[in-house]
TrEMBL record:
Start and end residues of each Methyltransferase domain: 45-140
Protein species of origin: Bradyrhizobium agreste
Pfam (any one): Methyltransf_25
InterPro entries found in the cross-reference section: Methyltransf_25 (IPR041698), SAM-dependent_MTases_sf (IPR029063)
Domain of life, per lineage: Bacteria
Protein name: Class I SAM-dependent methyltransferase
Length: 205
């Protein structure tokens, strides 16, 4: 087990769902951007670093039938499975590190809220983008949300790499076209605020 996996398994083993700063009762911006990508109910969607996020619940409630959730932490995914109940059997749960994972299929939408910004080493970011390129279909969409340039410098005790749309575009490369960017002020469970940016790119066909 990697140091990253150990860290996140410990977090999810010792804290409840609403006891982490990134908790959202309703992932409204993520869901809106997935819908804006023109997805239909057979769209293949992967939530990278999804943890115990409620995005998967919202996608299933919306009727999406091809949903995967990838996370370093088996504990996080188990928490999500238990919350969802019987419908969890329709989801592809993947315990993996996005920098070393080997995708076995391709996706129409790659979504990542608050995972990429933990990759402070350029080599890890390059490895992540390599996996992304092998997993996203031509014409597919990539949605990445990170702390904005004026957001926090750390999360869960770890340093982060803050981004805007331009820095993400530089990481992804010219085959990914920026389609839209949104700002969001996230309110943590203890009423502090965090500046996020959401960027949606389309892979050129």
């Amino acid at each position: 087990m990697s140091d990253r996996s150990t860290h996140w398994d410990h977090v999810y083993a010792t804290k409840g769902e609403a006891e982490v700063s990134w908790y959202q009762d309703s992932p409204a911006t993520s869901l809106a951007m997935i819908r804006a990508a023109g997805s239909d109910r057979d769209t293949a969607i992967i939530d990278v670093g999804g943890g115990a996020s409620r995005l998967v619940d919202a996608l299933l409630q919306d009727g999406y039938r091809d949903v995967a959730v990838l996370d370093l932490s088996a504990n996080a995914l188990e928490a999500a499975k238990k919350r969802i109940g019987q419908a969890a059997s329709t989801v592809d749960w993947i315990v993996a590190d996005a920098t070393t994972w080997r995708p076995t299929k391709t996706y129409d939408v790659w979504h990542d809220r608050a995972a990429f910004h933990f990759l402070t080493d350029p080599r890890d970011r390059a490895a992540y983008v390599q996996r992304l390129r092998s997993a996203v279909k031509p014409g597919g969409h990539v949605i990445i949300a990170t702390f904005a340039p004026d957001g926090p410098e750390k999360c869960s005790g770890l340093p982060v790499q803050r981004h805007d749309s331009a820095s993400l575009a530089a990481e992804l490369g010219p085959e990914f076209e920026l389609i839209e960017a949104r700002s969001e002020t996230h309110h943590t469970p203890w009423n502090s605020t965090q500046a996020f940016q959401f960027s949606r790119f389309r892979r050129q066909k």
